Amino acid sequence: MNTPIERSRLAPLVVGVDGSEPSLRAVDWAADEAELRGVPLRVVYACLWQRYEGAALARDLGEPAGRPLPQDIAGAAAQRARARHPRLRVTTDVVFEEPEYALVREGRGAAALVLGSRGRSGITELLLGSVSLTVAGHADCPVIVLRGSHDNQATPPVRGRVVVGVGDDAKDSAAVRFAVEEARRRGVALEAVRAWRCPAHETTDHPLLAGEPARLHEEKAAEELATAVQDVPADVEVRRRTVEGHAREVLVDASHEADLLVVGARRRPGHRGPQLGRIAHGALHRSACPVAVVPHRDPGD
Fold this sequence. Notes:
By secondary structure, the chain is an alpha/beta fold. The protein has two domains: 142 residues, 3-Layer(aba) Sandwich (Rossmann fold); 136 residues, HUPs (Rossmann fold, 3-Layer(aba) Sandwich), CATH 3.40.50. 38% of the residues lie in helices and 20% in strands. The two termini are 35 Å apart.
């Protein structure tokens, strides 16, 4: 257990709040995660309300007198986290800026960012929410987006496993390293999943060769999976699984039996647009459990 002084020197876990029910569930989950990691929790509320309206202007426009101030929203979220874990060190910050930009900047000094799946606008589940998508596609640190029916708790485990999707960067996967640590903290199994497909042009109807192309692709996937988890410490139970199909569908299916789904997102230097990739994008929209998007940069980037 880290002492309070040691905790204060560690990178905090950051949770973005906006007063909505999904963001309050994110506070609960983030408080559990910060306690597991032994790091401080930083509650951030970013909005443009005061910049463009201000309290006086809001009154002139007939806004309800009881409308909570940004500081009240952040303070209530922090109080909720402290009530859940009284020994947890919690700080707050209110930033009058677009939430996407503020949270991406907060991520530069964070152990991870935690966000609710939807904000106050009530966007449909299919669209997820622009803040979560933008932050997940740009942040320098892992971004955890809360999804699923058990998304308000990181502990105790509900399903008893952390699932990680193994991609082409099997030899040095930031997503795998992140997933290993999450499984270890929770004391649950790590399930490493590698999806594979046999291109249509490689199939054959010849009775002596039937199934041969598929077998070769499956064997290659198994080898890549073994490489990805070869350095996992002995105290973490590892389950390896190769599955034929589209990676997006395979991982969404696996999320139904997971406490956390971990996927990677390659960051390309100089690229200004979102950098999620189809697999991470699909997981964020359709996962049945919280999703951790872990950025990966090639050595030397």
